[in-house]
Amino acid sequence: QLTELRSILTFTVKLARTAGTLMLEGSQAIQSTLDIDSKVNSIDLVTEYDIAVENLVMNEIKREYPNFKFIGEESYSSGTRPELTDEPTFCVDPIDGTTNFVHGFPYICISLGVIYQKRPVLGVIYNPFLNHLYTAIEGQGSYLTRGSGQPMKLPLASPKPLPALSKALIAVEWGSARDVQAISARSNSFLRLTGDPTDGVSGGRMAHSLRSLGSAALNLAVVAQGAFDLYWDIGCWAWDVCAGVVIVQEAGGVVTGSHAVLAAADPSIDPFKVTPEILTGRKYLAVRRLPDTPQET
Ligand code: IPD
After folding, report:
1. What's the rounded Cα separation, in Å, for the pair 4 and 268?
2. Contact present, 246 and 137 (Cβ < 8 Å)
3. I need a surface site. Which of 25, 65, 116, 233 has the fewest CB within 10 A?
């Protein structure tokens, strides 16, 4: 067990807030210059600020914790791909919600997770645009601090068991694959979640509604908060979910999935049992939870 998790948390929160200042400056600049690049396709975006924030964070971590390994979204993209070992490892998405960042939609965060013995043990998710800070240490609960307020234990209200998917507010994402097969598989899943079960066509569960925050980390944070009942996604990377996994679990939720990332606010739900046809049997759904696992094709 890592004994110094409390002091790592203090360091990580400070770092997240420093990174947040750079993100706020960057958002002003990016919207006036629109200096945006793309990765896999024209909607998989990256900006100079994703790289600048990652460099800032990586340098600070290296200075403070020289023995820790570092996995970051942008350094991974540019070819620095450390193997995941049992050593303490920071796993970082400098700007989760890059598309939101580019458009000025204020659901954007930095996600900083610590993995130890291949298990996420600490998570910090900070949205500087709303000044929302989510934190968790394994075994010590999850907290949300809004503005300069006191940390509030998550979930914010004691969760009632979710009787059925028809009562759920579900977070989903559209992903960046836009070929017909990928997009229709996703939208068919959305139809089965929300369609009218009596229409004889959709076989839906008529969930209350779907939401897309555009940031995997914030979707997980809002599950931990108790406002989303579920978050279902495919193709997430380790840095998208590492911090959020700890935050959801420490709020009493469940994160599961070898084929999809799914977080449920109510631990009595086995999401695979509730929605088997939505979550399984889709060949294009690939596991991207850790950098060295097979990727979406
Ligand atoms: C993306 C967002 C998106 C999720 C994708 C992520 P990025 O991260 O979290 O909501 O659906 O899987 O890659 O590119 O904004 O850092």
Report:
1. 32
2. yes
3. 25
**Model confidence pTM above 0.90:** no
Ligand 1 pocket check: which of 39, 50, 215 to mutate, most ligand atoms within 8 Å of Cβ?
Answer: 215
Question: Residue type at 57?
Answer: V
Q: Distance between CA atoms of 1 and 249, rounded to whole angstroms?
A: 17
Q: Which residue out of 98, 100, 240, 242 has the highest number of ligand 1 atoms within 8 Å of its CB and is therefore the one to mutate?
A: 240
Helices (H), the chain: 5-33, 48-64, 73-77, 98-103, 180-194, 216-225, 238-250, 271-274, 276-279
Instruction: Please state the ipTM of this predicted complex.
Output: 0.94
Q: pLDDT tens for residues 175-205? A: 888 889 888 888 888 888 899 989 888 778 8
Q: Of residues 240, 250, 269, 275, which has the active-site annotation? A: 240
Q: What is the pLDDT of residues 264-294, one digit of tens each?
A: 665 555 443 333 333 332 222 222 222 333 3
> In this structure, which residue's CA is closest to atom 13 in ligand 1?
236
Beta bridge partners of 44: none
